[in-house]
Amino acid sequence: MDRVRTAVAHAREVTDHPWLERLARVGLVAYAVMHFTIAWLAFTVAWRIDPDAADADQAGALSTLGSSPGGLLLLWVLGLGLLSLAVWQAGEVLRWWTGLLDPDHRLRAAFVCIKCLAKATVYGAFGLLALVFAVGAEYDAAENTQELTDDVLGVPLGNWLVGAAGLVVIGVGGYLVVRGVTGGFMKDVDLHAAPDRYEPTIEGLGRVGYLAKGAAFAVAGGLLVFAAVTSDVATATGLDGAVNAIGAVPTGQWLLTAVALGFAAFGVYALARARYPDRDPSS
């Protein structure tokens, strides 16, 4: 156990290093830029501005950024920043791991650790995706989602598995909505460092952003469930499919515009996190 504690102490020296926090701030700015780009792509879908625009999802956003002037350098900065953010966020687990050994605090510690690791996984995945584009490879999230769904539907109980995955995505959407309604996302902002006058603006933008993201994820999950029920992979296209589905309903143009503005609002909130970061979800 002493060796474990020593190893954890050394690991914390790395994850708590000021330079890693600075790089994590770059990652949060990258996360904001991704959401601004998704917002723009969703807006182009709503108003049919550019039929040849990339898919309105994370992969489409990175592809769009990569094709801009200086895009290659930008992708490397985004990728390395997001990976640094993932390491920094995962480092919070090192603060809580001893709680897993305490019966009185085990459940709370486990929840916090899972939450931190989930965030770190998301940031790390986006960071790796940015580097995939940076080295010249291609990735189509919608197409890959369809192919994976088709493969799963072909195995025994595949429809149930796809349906369960869809329900999980809907659950993620619901979690984002609840987080937006309750304002729990403000725990990720160091309110002691932020001026009081900024707090209402940060909170308002965060609420709008989380509600928009939650709605989009819920629709994406619903489309996955529909694919499971009908055995038709055409609707299993992830976030881009959700964006197009929202735009296709009556008044969809305005609904999708609202979603786009929500993603942009989340981008501003992410910038606030970059300025006043707090990785401790229990704060």
What does this structure look like?
The protein has helices at about 1-15, 20-45, 60-65, 70-90, 95, 105-135, 140-155, 160-180, 200-230, 240-250, 250-275. The radius of gyration is 20 Å and the shape is globular. Helices cover about 75% and strands about 0% of the residues. It has one domain (about 1-275). With about 280 residues, the protein is mainly α. It starts with a helix and ends in an 8-residue tail after the last helix. The chain has eleven helices and no strands. The model has no long low-confidence stretch (mean pLDDT about 90).
Summarize the structure.
By secondary structure, this protein is mostly helical. Helices cover 74% and strands 0% of the residues.
Descriptive labels:
single chain, 283 residues, mainly alpha, 11 helices
Number of strands: 0
Radius of gyration: 20 Å
| Count of individual helical segments | 11
Task: Return the average pLDDT rounded to an integer.
Answer: 91
Give the distance, in angstroms, between the N- and C-terminal Cα atoms.
Answer: 28 Å
Total domain count: 1
Q: How much helix is in the residues?
A: over 70%
Secondary-structure class: mainly alpha
Beta strand %:
under 5%
User: What is the N-to-C succession of helices and strands?
Assistant: HHHHHHHHHHH
